């Protein structure tokens, strides 16, 4: 049996006397496409529990309800017991499961773990090596496929709208909206800067300053027969802004979610005389390979990054406290790569890092309907922990 999820909106005094259509466009901020799909759904629009058309006149205090499911959702056959229906008579209560470091996470399969879930949103912890969408060579093992199977097992009639997607090798938090309306609202938050994602990056060497901002424009380079990024100089160049802060001391590690480890196991996370630095990174723009490219551009490529690990080997290390001229940064980047290694830059010396060591560890946002602030975190994966 599938669940039916309604969103409830209370008519204000100012909206009294208006048709339902005006409220859907105005106070509820629905798109024309969504309203059109609601009109086709059985019981798609309810006013105080009874089906109405968009021409119905509303009164203050009435409860206008809309079905949240997408137009048509194709689900795999449920496996095992399905979740009972919530009924069609009114708004469903949000189902919430929050898992943090101190709580046992729920699994979608042997690899993908749920970090947060309610009736509209789902956040999972993606392992390195898993793709977000089905593609050639990845049929049935993507996050999209795993979520669809999970919906089938739990009887959820929900969509799979991924936002904040990650590259195959990047681990960490991926968000899924369960319907188009929620997806639109989360996308709006991203555009307005209210949806914040922070990464942990393990980089080789040490940045000259404990924090900084990198603003080198970027453009695609396919001259070698595959995609990589370079410093942008032509009309196709796009602006890119990356902020980083070096993680220092035990308090810094605790702030990155490692306080769940027993004290006796935390000391090795802070070992000195290592060839790398752990940085907290957030980006204002979402360019392809942005963090990997920008950190390499300042002479600190990500550990294990075969694509950019040697591209900026000729970038001179700046003196502590000195400010690198951005034009000089771009000039160094344009000089091109040094001899490319066949193995990741972190490999033969540190074989546990076999991918670009980047992890999306925290997201903060406002719930799209309740307005409360939510923070979701995912602990460091085992390969990055072992290297540190």
How would you describe this structure in keywords?
single chain; about 400 residues; alpha+beta; twelve-stranded mixed β-sheet; four-stranded antiparallel β-sheet; 9 helices; about 20% helix; PsdUridine_synth_RsuA/RluA; pseudouridine synthase activity; RluA_PseudoU_synthase
What are the low-pLDDT stretches, counting only 5+ consecutive residues below 50?
72-104, 260-271, 314-349
Class by SSE composition:
alpha+beta
Q: Would you tell me the overall average pLDDT?
A: 78
Along the chain, the helix and strand elements come as EHHEEEEEEEHEEHEEEEEHHEHHEEH
Largest sheet composition: 12 strands, mixed
How far apart are the termini?
47 Å
Portion of residues in beta strands equals 15-25%
Give the total of beta strands: 18
Number of helices: 9
Proportion of helical residues: 10-25%
Radius of gyration from the CA trace? Answer: 24 Å
Morphology call: elongated
Domain Pseudouridine synthase RsuA/RluA-like: 120-297
Protein name: RNA pseudouridylate synthase
Biased composition (Polar residues): 329-346
Pfam families: PseudoU_synth_2
């Amino acid at each position: 049996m599938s669940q039916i999820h309604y969103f409830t909106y209370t008519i204000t005094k100012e909206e009294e006397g208006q048709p339902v259509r005006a409220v859907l466009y105005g106070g509820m901020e629905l798109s024309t496409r969504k309203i059109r799909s609601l009109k086709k759904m059985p019981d798609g629009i309810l006013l105080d529990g009874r089906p109405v058309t968009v021409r119905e006149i509303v009164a203050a205090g009435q409860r206008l309800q809309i079905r949240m499911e997408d137009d048509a959702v194709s689900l795999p056959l449920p496996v095992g017991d399905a979740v009972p229906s919530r009924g069609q008579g009114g708004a469903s209560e949000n189902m919430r499961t929050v898992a943090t470091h101190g709580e046992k996470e729920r699994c979608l399969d042997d690899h993908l773990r749920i970090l947060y879930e309610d009736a509209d949103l789902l956040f999972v912890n993606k392992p390195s090596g898993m793709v977000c969408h089905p593609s050639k060579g990845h049929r049935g093992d993507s996050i999209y496929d795993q979520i669809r199977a999970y919906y089938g097992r739990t009887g959820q009639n929900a969509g799979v709208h991924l936002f904040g997607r990650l590259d195959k090798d990047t681990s960490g938090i991926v968000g899924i909206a369960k319907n188009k309306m929620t997806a639109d609202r989360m996308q709006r938050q991203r555009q307005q800067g209210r949806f914040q994602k922070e990464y942990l990056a393990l980089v080789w060497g040490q940045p000259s300053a404990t924090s900084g901002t990198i603003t080198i424009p970027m453009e695609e380079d396919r001259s070698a027969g595959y995609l990589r990024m370079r410093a942008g100089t032509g009309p196709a160049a796009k602006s890119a802004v990356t902020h980083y802060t070096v993680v220092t001391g035990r308090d810094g590690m605790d702030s990155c979610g490692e306080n769940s480890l027993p004290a006796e196991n935390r000391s090795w996370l802070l070992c000195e005389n290592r060839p790398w630095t752990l940085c907290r990174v957030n980006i204002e723009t979402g360019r392809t390979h942005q963090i990997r490219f920008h950190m390499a551009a300042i002479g600190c490529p990500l550990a294990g990054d075969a694509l950019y690990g040697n591209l900026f080997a000729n970038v001179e290390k700046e003196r502590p406290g000195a400010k690198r001229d951005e034009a000089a940064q771009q000039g160094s980047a344009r000089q091109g790569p040094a001899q490319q290694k066949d193995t990741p830059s972190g490999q033969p010396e540190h074989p546990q890092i076999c991918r670009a060591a980047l992890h999306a560890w925290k997201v903060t946002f406002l719930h799209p309907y309740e307005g409360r602030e939510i923070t979701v975190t995912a602990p460091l994966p085992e390969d990055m922990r072992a290297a540190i």
